[in-house]
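#struct-help
A.M.: can someone run this one for me? Single chain, 338 residues.
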Amino acid sequence: MKTFTTFVYNLYSCLIGWIGFGTLLCLNACTTPKSSNESIAFYYWKTHYHLNSFERAYLQKQDVQKIYLHCFDIALENGQPKPQGVLLWQEAALKGIEYIPTVFIQNEILQKADTSHLHELAQHTFSLCKQILAAQQLSIKELQIDCDWTESTRDSYFYFLKCLKQNNITLSTTLRLYQYKYATKSGIPPADYVSLMCYNMGNMKKAQNENSILNKKDLQAYLQSTKAYPLPLNIALPIFNWTLLYNNQTFKGILYQVPDLQNRYWKRISEISYICVQAHFDSICQQNFYPNESIRMETISKKDLEQALLTIQHYVNNSKNEIIYFDLDSSKIRHCLY
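D.P.: on it. Structure tokens below:
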């Protein structure tokens, strides 16, 4: 815990300055999937805060008033919880936007932590978030914690949240679909509201699975025949894509670049899948591929989002009247929301 404390007090002594705004671009008319009474918000999940002119203009066009700002992760390093990927400002925060600091905490940290360590961790977490926002003369009114807690870590996690609530702020947490469906086993977090994450619902490890980011069948299975959640909630939806790699149907990982598929080394086997037919080095991914390795490219379209919203609105009361898109990025907005 001492390493975390030192980090908190020393980080922003070397905070880099921000640069000025660029010139706004005019946007053509575009429609973001939502119902008439739902406002739009975004997660910002990069380690350096900088918006391009398209993103700034889009936020203005859609009258976005909230950004859930990923400030850092809390992860185990040498057996101790430490902040990782701490946000640095490269430009000034936008006026008229409420920035809600958002922190991801690894579930493993909660497995063996006692109450004294959790209380200390909550203090350091709030302190670092406060410093990050203070760099832009912003104060913390609200904080969101992102954690894939389990039944075995529930009590520790909920105690951590109660400690954070002592700072007299609005506190929210993310809520996975299984935590929503199995609320009795998962427990209800001691928060003011939750953000229901309607994505990452399928099994990406199955090579023949449907879209594991978002698909109507899995979404409906989680939401139907479920009692109303006892806390207010809003809805989080995906606007990202990924490419999954398999070897003989066994999941190997996520590729962060799509390999060059326009050559003799790959054979198309479905609309979104390819199989490697000859060993080669791919300069885009900077790695070797071998025969019987396959990839599946999963993307989200505007139609997918519209169908998901219809399903969600049928089963879930979005009592906060807010949709949060993950995450704020011009290429993802162009692909999914236009």
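A.M.: thanks! Residues 125 and 231 are 24 Å apart (CA to CA).
D.P.: also worth noting: The longest strand covers residues 66-77.
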